[in-house]
Every structure is written in C-alpha cells, then in structure tokens.
Design brief:
This protein is α+β, with helices and mostly antiparallel strands. The protein has one domain: Butyryl-CoA Dehydrogenase, subunit A, domain 3. 68% of the residues lie in helices and 9% in strands. Strands 3-2-1-4 form a 4-stranded antiparallel β-sheet, covered by helices on one side. Strand 2 and strand 3 form a beta hairpin. The longest helix has 30 residues.
Length: 152
C-alpha cells in the first residue's frame, strides 16, 4: 500500500510552472522580448534585430527542449507513485536540471547590455520549491511505509 498525497499536487504545480516558463517572456530590451520559444519585436527599431536573431537561434532549441524535458519528468514522476525511490530520484533530477537551466540562462544573458529580466524568471525557482516539498512528502511516505513494515 502506497500513500499518495501532497507530492502529486506539488509535482503537478512544478510541471505547470515549468510549462508556463517555456512560453512567458524572460528578458527584454526596449525593442525585443525574449522567451524560450523565440523573440518578439516590441517596437519597429531594427538596430538590435541582428542581436535578437542570434539570441533567438541560441535560446530557442536547447533551453526550450530542456524546459519541456523537466516538465515531462515531473509528470512522469507523478505516475511513479508505487516506486517511491524512483519518484524521489526523478524529483532530484528535475531540481538539478532546473538549476542548470537557470544558471546557463544567466551566463548567456549576463553580458548583454540594456537587458531587463522579467518576473517570470521566478517560475523555475518556485518549481524548485515545489520539488523540495514533493521530496519531503515522499520521504514522509517512505517513513510511514517502513513503520508499517515493522508492525507486521
């Protein structure tokens, strides 16, 4: 018997946050907005158009695919409730991949001038908090199951 409670909710919240992060704008200048799904030109100023096209090619595929992978792993870990050890490992992998995603985006965009980061960059941090809460719930369930095994 496996107790499935709050960790499923936390994992679903993390999956939704990471899926939303893939399409929300993450940074921008006066003329462009960057998201993981591409660049959007806000004004008709084309002086930064070359930089935007380069950033679009760099940002689009690796980071978008990593974000979708993290979200998919979160959904897969929801359905692995019978194997708590695997579920806990998948949560840890999602935390590591989310930290790698955020660190690589910061390194990539750090040297750009006049770039503003948006509040949507808090979504992966909130997802990490949800993963940590899910791991705590899984550990609590493992502890409960081991106490039931001792009683038998």
């Amino acid at each position: 018997m496996v107790i499935q409670r709050w960790q499923s909710v936390y994992l679903l919240i993390a999956a939704i946050l990471m899926a939303c992060y893939a399409f929300f704008p993450i940074a921008g200048t006066d003329s462009i907005e960057l998201s993981l799904s591409g660049c959007e030109y806000v004004s008709s100023d084309v002086s930064n158009a070359v930089d935007a096209d380069v950033l679009q090619e760099v940002l689009m595929w690796p980071f978008l695919s990593l974000t979708i992978l993290i979200s998919a792993l979160s959904l897969v870990s929801i359905f692995k409730f019978k194997n708590l050890k695997l579920q806990k490992t998948l949560c840890s992998v999602c935390i590591v991949l989310t930290v790698v995603l955020m660190a690589s985006l910061v390194v990539l965009l750090y040297g750009q001038t006049d770039i503003n980061f948006y509040y949507s960059n808090l979504l992966p941090l909130l997802a990490v908090v949800a993963y940590v809460l899910a791991i705590r719930g899984i550990s609590k369930d493992q502890k409960t199951l081991s106490s039931y095994d001792r009683l038998r």
